[in-house]
Each structure stands twice: as structure tokens, then as C-alpha cells.
Amino acid sequence: MGQSFSEEIDGIPILVNFGEVVVEPFDGTQDPHIHLQFTANKVKRLKIANFFNIWQAKDESLKSYLD
């Protein structure tokens, strides 16, 4: 049998530019929804495809280009 899941996860190196999210522990004195509001407001990365470097070859049919 292989490694346990946690050992496998522990073996993965952390990226150099990784920024850990710091959240103050919830102490019960405020609304939990407000406490966790940061997750709703976090920046979402846009997924953008780069189509500027895709070219149809001179002798390539449109059908094969689109496949």
C-alpha cells in the first residue's frame, strides 16, 4: 500500500510565492457571516485564453484547423 493521503500532501513543496491567508480566530462575539466575509470578497483570477498565437497553416483546411 502507498503513502497515506496526509504524507503525500506533506511531501508536496510549497510554492515560493504562496501567500497564506491569515484569519483571526472566531471568538463568538460577532456574526459568523461577517467574520468569514473575506472569502466572498477575495479576488478571483480571470481565466483568459491566449488566441493570438494560434494560426491556421497555409495548407491546412478550416475543418482540420478547428478540430
Overview features:
67 residues; mainly alpha; 0% strand
- Which structural class do you get from the secondary structure elements? mainly alpha
Report the average pLDDT across residues: 79
Indicate the percent of residues in helices.
Answer: 25-40%
List unreliable stretches of 5+ residues: none
What value does the Rg take, in angstroms?
A: 23 Å
Please provide the count of β strands. Answer: 0
Termini separation comes to: 42 Å
List the helices and strands and how they pair.
Blueprint: H1 5-10, H2 32-35, H3 38-41, H4 62-66
What can you tell me about this protein's structure?
With 67 residues, the chain is mostly helical. The chain has one domain (1-67). It has four helices and no strands.
Short description:
It is built from four helices and no strands. The protein is mostly helical.
